[in-house]
Structure formats: structure tokens, C-alpha cells
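Could you join me in thinking about how sequence relates to backbone shape in a protein? Would you write everything just below, so we can both look at the same thing?
***
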Amino acid sequence: MTASLPKIELHLHLEGAAPPAFIRQLSAEKHMDISGIFDAAGNYAYRDFWHFLQVYEAATTTLTRPEDYARLTRAVLQESAASGVIYSEVFLSPDFCGGRDLLAWREYLAAIQQAAAAAERDLGIVLRGIVTPIRHFGPAKARETALCAAETAGDFIVGFGLAGDEKRGQPRDFCWAFDMAREAGLRLTCHAGEWAGPHSVRAAWRDLGVERIGHGVRAIEDPGLVGELAAAGVVLECCPGSNIALGIYPDWDSHPIEKLRKNGVTVTVSTDDPPFFHTTMAREYAQLAATFGWDGQVFAALARDAANAAFCDAATRAKILQRLEKIDV
């Protein structure tokens, strides 16, 4: 039932969505030895979240040209469309796309956009970008990333966020970068409440003025915060499969997405870095249905909430909502 439902994904890292075979092929073409990041079956191999970050960044070393990113974008959107995704927002980091050099970033971005336009034409999937500095690279580099974001804000680059190691620094350290992005008209999100507790959600929301929180699930540990998020309409970009694969929760029954939803918090569903966590949007939906008994009406409401939380322009949102009206509940 869930496989055919049209889906909206708001929390997806472009490099983190690279199929392992794609990265292995690139490394072979460029005579790069990154074999240490794969297991015997050819999948990404990591011990914990912090090792995951190292493996992730090692995989990105194969992506050295705009054309590499065009190929990656095509591969990722093919996977997403196969799961029924009709609209996706992807995190893009100038840190990896041109080393935060504005001219190089424009070249990488143009290649990504061209591939996205072709996928929209051929597969019916719409892509928009959220520029994200890497938290553990520090606030100074985040300022350079914010400049790249501000200079390319528009129809495709619609948001600004913050990813990386939550335990490094505080959200307020990045206020300058977020202020620049806000002044450029970009919508704001921030990873929080994944590895750090509910205090990180409150800090990201209040100090950076974001309207969405990436993950945010550990807000459940603070009932007062849950009520505040519900009242303010702050949206959580939940990634259950990711949280379970990384050991934040032991199993699907333990994941708080249903408790958050029943307490009035607007939740959405995404895959985060799907090949790392052996998931797809179709699998996330199927597991949610099996675990929490979500039916067509719940998934239809979930998709509408995600469409309304998307950072795209009003015309794009209207088209997406029109496509969602066809959901058979």
C-alpha cells in the first residue's frame, strides 16, 4: 500500500545518498584507493556516528568535479523517484563543492541544477537545495558557506541549515552565518536533538530562529519543549531508519515519532543518508505502517504537512499539493 504513495522528503544529504557502487566506480576511474570505507559486501562500513562522519567525508573525496556532482544528482534522484518521491530537498555543502570558493561553487551548483532539471522532466521529481555548513568545521568556515548561499539564493537554493557533529560548539556560534542567510531570503533549518539532548533543539530554535529542526526527536525527553514546538508549529525532519541504524533508539517500537505526532508536533519523514542506513523512503513508509499502524489517511496528512513545510516557492508548493490530492486513502 505505501510503496505507491507519493512522498516528500525534506532531509537528505546529497553525498550521503551516493550509492556505494557509484562511489566505488568514481574511485576506480580516478585510481583512488578508498577501499577501507567498505565492508566485504561492498556497503559502507562504520563503527559509530563519529566514524560514520569520517567515512562520509572519505567518500566525498571522489567527487572532485562538477560533472561528478551531476552524475551523483542523477543517481540519487533515480533512487528517490523509485520510492515514489515527487519532491525532495537536499543538503548541499560548498565545503565539498568547490571548497567554499564562490566561483567554483557556482560551477558545481550549475551542474547539480542541470541534472535536477533533467530528472524533473524525465522522472517527475522536483529537487531544491539547502546549503549547509559543516558544524565541526567551525563558525569561520560557516561564514564563507553562508556567503555562497546568499549569493546563489533563488528558485533552486531555497534554504540554509547546519549539519555535522552536534556536540561541537553551540548553535549561537553560527548566528552570523544564519543572519546572512536570513537576510538573503533563505528559509532556515538546523540539525539538533539527534546526538545532543532536548536542550540542543531549544538552542537551535531560539538562538538561530529556525522553522524546522533536522531530526529533533530527543525533544520527547522534555514534555515542556514538546508542547512549545507543537504550539509554535516547528517542524521536525524525522529520519527514523537513520536513528535506529546509528543506535539512538534500539528499534522501531522505541522511536518517538508517533508520540511526537500524537502530542501535536508536526513531523515529516526522510532517509537522511539512505545507503549508509540500508533504507529508502519506501522502506521508511512500510516500517511506519507496520510498527505504528499508520494508514493512508495518516500518510496523506504527513505528505501535506511536508509540502507545507517545504522551502520552495508558492507556485511549486501548489503543484506539489495538487499532485498529493490524488492520494487514494
The two ends are 10 Å apart (CA to CA). The mean pLDDT is 95. Residues 7-18+64-323 form a domain with the TIM Barrel fold (CATH 3.20.20.140).
